[in-house]
Amino acid sequence: MKAKKLLSILLIITLLITVFPQLALAGKGDVVSLGADLTQEQRQEILKEFGVTEDEVNIIEVSIQDVKEHLVDATSKEIGTKAYSSAYVKLMPNGKGLFVDIHNVSLVTEEMYANAMATAGVKDAEVKVAAPFKVTGTTALTGIMMAFEEATGKKLNEEAKKTANQELKVTQDISEDLGKDKATELIRKVKTEILSQKIKNPEDMRKVINDIANELGIELSEEQIDRILKLMEKISKLDINVDSILNQLDKIGKNLEIVKDTIEENKGVLQKIIDAILSWLRNIFG
Considering the domain boundaries, does residue 20 fall inside one? Predict the structure, then answer.
């Protein structure tokens, strides 16, 4: 009798372990971009982190050469020689905005990715970024964009993709002095103001940068201002849907809070399940 009960418990525990990570079920149109240099064991680890199997999603590979084509201003040292960062993209209904979650990324935040994704033309998608060990996260945006293109069947604007990578790099660099949150907020607000007001004149852009920096209590060096200005000039000249970018930017903050709240709620549910199982085991075996 005890053996049967124990077998039932083990089956339930196994079911919970395998099913719980997949509360958000994958769809046939979902795409995972895997770093080309991952080992087979690491590939499975990443898929497990995303809560999917190879049969549930479309899988593409991202090579270091793919990354180099988009990170035009980065050095070889910054790009590296191996592609490990991976991304999961699930398309959402129109108007939902961008949802981002990351694992094992040290220097790039969820909002940094979301801001750059909006610039590239990525929209209305749930995105997860992961690596088998700690990485800076700079190169992962290439995989996100490639997966989004695969999921939609449409190519993103090439110049927009390069500019998005530049945006991520600039934000990451200035975050070393300002902190991640301040740097991200600065770039997002400057970009929103310049696009919404359709500002094209470089001196007017410089004024926006200085005004928003002052508003946020940020002191920028001339070099930092010049880098941000150069980035904003590129963004202002992109042949993309400005209203779409602004719509995504408007939803980013709210959506990131939803992601964080959902993760915490899921952790709470899992803990309650574990506690209930342990209590059950104690009652059976004393």
Answer: no
- pLDDT tens digits, residue range 210-244? 999 999 999 999 999 999 999 999 999 998 888 88
Residue 18 lies in a domain: no
Q: What are 175's two structure tokens?
A: 């975050």
Q: Is residue 246 part of a domain?
A: yes
Residue 109: give the domain boundaries. 29-192+239-259
pLDDT at position 243 is: 83
Q: What's the Cα-to-Cα distance from 6 to each of 9, 13, 271, rounded to whole Å?
A: 5, 11, 21
In a domain, 200, yes or no: no
- CB distance 36 to 62 below 8 Å: yes
- Bridge partners, residue 31, by sequence: 58, 89
Q: What is the domain count for the chain?
A: 1
Give the mean model confidence (pLDDT) for residues 268-277: 52
Would you say 151 and 89 are in contact if contact means Cβ atoms under 8 Å apart?
yes
Show Cβ contacts of residue 130 under 8 Å, excluding neighbours closer than 6 positions.
46, 49, 50, 85, 86, 87, 88, 102, 103, 104, 105
Whether 123 has a pLDDT exceeding 90, the answer reads: yes
- Of 60, 131, 115, 111, the closest CA to residue 89 belongs to 60
- pTM, two decimal places: 0.78
